[in-house]
Amino acid sequence: ILAQGTIWARASQALTGLGRAAASRRMAVVTVPEAASAAQELILAPKEGAYLDLPAGKNVADVIISFGPQPGRLAFWVESAEDPSRHGPVNCLPSVPSEPYALRGMPEGRHRVRAALWEPLPDQPSAQPKQPGELQAGGAFKVSQRAAHCFHVKRFADFAPGYDWQPVEHWHRVPPGLEISMDLSSGGDGQRRARIPQQWQWDAAVDGATRRVPVEADATVGQLLERLSLSGATHEMVWKQPDGQHERELDVGWTAQQIDLFRYAKDIVVRSKLLP
Questions:
Q1: Which superkingdom is the protein from (predicted)?
Q2: 6 phi/psi in degrees, rounded to 5
């Protein structure tokens, strides 16, 4: 993805410093209002291990980078977490900026942002670091503080819940109304898990009105009609495509789990068979 540094070149050209003459490279820098403040941490965002979603229809994302207030000159760059030799330019600023920057055009994958507070060389006060190695231990420049955060750019996916516990990954979009569990016990993995509640409340559209009815996985369409004080002789439960072009009557013997009622709750209606 980062072969020959093409994506890094494009990204580095996008980091501009909002008129900061000290930005030594052509960086496309974008200001984000109401920057967060924090003490002592050099890198505030992205957080270590953060997952960032790829926008719909795009193969790259914008990554917001922000720094904590610290005295000193700042140098930072982004590199591949799998191969640090594949990195963008070292960007040098005369001080730690108070506003976040937006780094454009980050591809899917695992990346790392590095930052360092550095001091100029005594005999070359105007010299700036140009390579990451110059800011590492034993490098040409004296460094008072270093920080590094790994983050992931990934296309998020909808979580498909069931009535049994299932693991929830960092890149899952979780629908509302689920039971969430997290293993925080000693030796636990901290993994989030989710499931559809064993009984949940469905706000059913019945002849144009909303009526609430309890639902379990094995509750049949016929049983749900009975709970609504209706019968299969007078009413039907119908799945309707959101655009209204297609619909299907649901068999009274099918269960809520079989028709995936939790997922399609807004697309399934109850209507009278007696009305035209």
A1: Eukaryota
A2: -65, -40
Helices within 172-231 (DSSP H only): 221-227
Return the number of other C-beta atoms located less than 10 Å from residue 4's C-beta. Answer: 8
Phi, psi of 11 (to 5 degrees): -65, -40
Tokens 């750019």 belong to which residue? 153
Topology classification of domain 199-272: Ubiquitin-like (UB roll) (3.10.20)
Cα pseudo-dihedral 90, 91, 94, 97, rounded to 10: -130
Query: Which CATH number describes the domain made up of 43-155?
Result: 2.60.40
The pLDDT, as a whole number, for residue 189 is: 63
Question: How many C-beta atoms lie closer than 10 Å to residue 156's C-beta?
Answer: 15
Q: What whole-number distance in Å separates Cα of residue 212 and Cα of residue 21?
A: 62
**Assigned token pair, 196:** 């559809």
Q: What value does the mean pLDDT take over residues 226-233?
A: 96
Is the predicted pLDDT of residue 16 greater than 50, yes or no? Answer: no
For residue 91, give the H/E element and its range.
strand 91-93
For the chain, the domains span: 43-155, 199-272
Task: Name the E strands within 134-199.
Answer: 142-154, 157-158, 166-168, 172-173, 179-182, 192-195
Averaged pLDDT, 169-197: 87
pTM for this prediction: 0.70
H or E element at residue 11: helix 6-13
Please state, in angstroms and rounded to a whole number, the distance separating the CA atoms of residues 44 and 109: 20
Q: Is the pLDDT assigned to residue 131 strictly greater than 90? A: yes
CB 209 within 8 A of CB 241: no
| CA distance linking residue 51 with residue 151, whole number of Å | 6
pLDDT for the residue numbered 179: 97
